[in-house]
Automatic annotation (TrEMBL):
GO terms for molecular function: cysteine-type peptidase activity. SMART domains: Inhibitor_I29, Pept_C1. Keywords: Disulfide bond, Hydrolase, Protease, Signal, Thiol protease, Zymogen. InterPro entries: Papain-like_cys_pep_sf (IPR038765), Pept_asp_AS (IPR025661), Pept_cys_AS (IPR000169), Pept_his_AS (IPR025660), Peptidase_C1A (IPR013128), Peptidase_C1A_C (IPR000668), Peptidase_C1A_papain-like (IPR039417), Prot_inhib_I29 (IPR013201). Gene3D superfamilies: Cysteine proteinases. Residues 36-96 form the Cathepsin propeptide inhibitor domain. It comes from Caerostris darwini. The keyword Signal applies. This is Cathepsin L. Residues 125-340 form the Peptidase C1A papain C-terminal domain. It holds the Pfam family Inhibitor_I29. One of its GO terms (biological process) is proteolysis. Residues 1-23 form the signal peptide. Belongs to the peptidase C1 family.
Length: 341
């Protein structure tokens, strides 16, 4: 039995106990004490003093209440997805928006952009795509408390295109982009197009091994002798067109996209097809850069298979299924792009 499965079962039991304890106030505190200690152990949590721990625990308890209420609706078929705990469940909503998002469009130049050219026989596209099966997706990464999602989205699509062209899957350096893309703002946000521009101008991007992630912006240490992949340009897809995004995912590979992840439900997503009517789909609503690695249909709901950069404790081991063909929900097709190699 895998450790991942054991942890999943543990948290199912924990959430059930929490729900039962609510109806018995005298025992509630003891049950929650045990759950809190388990949470700290599983996610290696430590806090700077009793006051800070009490503050974090209060946030965490509120999160569990939200999770239980939502999952009761999911159990009765009123929600298409479930929520769960992750290592960020002790962050406030404001901290979540500040540290775990970071998509911001700037006025960067676009010298390397190439027009999108539709492919032939679009009606023959497969009903399901998952580029992980083809070995075009690296393991889930973790941006930590740094608004560098744009860098992870950039490396993810380039890793896929490099694998498709060369046959080698190379993990690329997000830190290289955080430190060196001056048009963006490092841990304070940015977007993917300027990153593609820099990679072309510098004739490459370092490997993850040669330029490891720290999650703190520093001086640029790009090394032309440890390049892991190159980029000859990039393509911006037509804004808001899910049919074109499907075409690109099916025929090109993993695609960089931006989404509105500001709804609190996204923060605690665990499984199922994410369908959130509070999501915006215009450019100003976009808050987070991610990677579409496939699509499909589950229980009659079309979905996009999306790789996030919040580690494997979030979502479906780092992935989310976002509803597809529903008015470009969460803006997933509003700012989609991919690199050329």
């Amino acid at each position: 039995m895998s450790l991942r499965f054991i942890r999943m079962m543990k948290w199912m039991v924990i959430l059930s106990l929490f729900a039962l304890a609510v109806s018995d106030p005298p025992s509630r505190s003891r049950v929650v004490d045990v759950i809190w200690e388990n949470y700290k152990t599983v996610y290696a949590k430590s806090y700077a003093g009793t006051q800070e721990e009490e503050r974090r625990r209060a946030v965490w308890e509120g999160r569990i209440t939200i999770i239980i209420q939502h999952n009761l609706l999911a159990d009765t078929g009123k929600k298409s997805f479930r929520l769960g705990l992750n290592k960020y469940s002790d962050l406030t909503y404001e901290e979540y928006l500040r540290f775990l998002n970071g998509y911001k469009v700037t006025n960067a130049t676009r010298e390397c952009r190439v027009p999108w050219v539709p492919v032939d026989n679009a009606e023959e596209l497969p009903d399901r795509v998952d580029w992980r099966v083809q070995g075009m997706v690296t393991p889930v990464k973790d941006q930590k408390l740094c608004g560098s999602c744009w860098a992870f989205s950039t490396t993810g699509s380039l890793e896929g295109q490099h694998k498709k062209k060369t046959g080698n899957l190379v993990s690329l350096s997000e830190q290289n982009l955080i430190d060196c893309v001056r048009e963006n703002n490092g841990c304070n946000g940015g977007w993917m197009d300027p990153a593609f521009e820099l990679i072309k101008k510098e004739n490459g991007i370092d490997t993850e091994t040669s330029y490891p992630y720290t999650g703190i912006q520093d001086s640029c240490f790009f090394n032309e002798f440890t390049v892991g992949a190159t980029c000859t340009g990039y393509v911006d897809l037509p804004e808001g067109d899910e049919a074109t995004l499907k075409m690109a995912v099916a025929t090109k590979g993993p695609i960089s996209v931006a989404i509105d992840s500001s709804a609190e439900s996204f923060y605690s997503y665990k499984s199922g097809v994410y369908d959130e009517p509070l999501c915006g789909n215009d450019v100003d609503s976009l808050t987070h850069g991610v990677l579409v690695v496939g699509y499909g249909t589950e229980k009659d709901m079309d979905y996009w298979l999306v790789k996030n950069s919040w580690g494997e404790t979030w979502g479906m081991h780092g992935y989310i299924k976002m509803v597809r063909n529903k008015n470009n929900q969460c803006g997933i097709a509003t700012k989609a792009s991919y690199p050329l190699v």
